[in-house]
């Protein structure tokens, strides 16, 4: 007996759960390393208890899932590493910064960033 619907349902459920999973946080060494990885990178500079930062997590997870290995989406907690955040001129949490594969900042947004606007900005930056 075959269950083709079950297979499709399981795939959708797994994709949904993966999209809602946590986005990893970096320490200062990890931040330096990821910016030299030759991949598109989005860093959300925020904090684990910042309400808009927490609200952004499903959006970031969805974007990570959508781009897969083309891009790296990570958190960097300003509250834990203020010196490094200051080096990136972070003044408000959350601030999302898009870096191209050379590690150059190509876009920045402050506050909650709706998914459709975020995806549009990624496209304009060159990530498709």
Can you give me a brief rundown of this structure?
The chain is α/β, with parallel strands linked by helices and 128 residues long. The chain has one domain (23-125): 3-Layer(aba) Sandwich (Glutaredoxin). Helices cover 45% and strands 21% of the residues.
Q: Describe it for me?
A:
The protein has 128 residues and is α/β, with parallel strands linked by helices. It contains 5 helices and 5 strands. Helix content is 45%, strand content 21%. It has a 5-stranded mixed β-sheet with strand order 1-3-2-4-5. Residues 6-20 have low confidence and may be disordered.
Blueprint (SSEs and pairs):
Elements: H1 4-19, E1 25-26, H2 28-34, E2 40-46, H3 51-67, E3 71-77, H4 82-87, E4 95-99, E5 105-110, H5 115-125
Parallel strand pairs: 1-3, 2-3
Antiparallel strand pairs: 2-4, 4-5
Quickly count the domains: 1
CATH fold type: Glutaredoxin
Task: Strand order, main sheet: write it out.
Answer: 1-3-2-4-5
Helicity range = 40-55%
The Cα radius of gyration reads 16 Å
Number of helical segments with 4 or more residues: 5
Distance N terminus to C terminus?
Answer: 41 Å
Derived structural class: alpha/beta
Order of helices and strands: HEHEHEHEEH
Shape: globular
Low-confidence stretches: 6-20
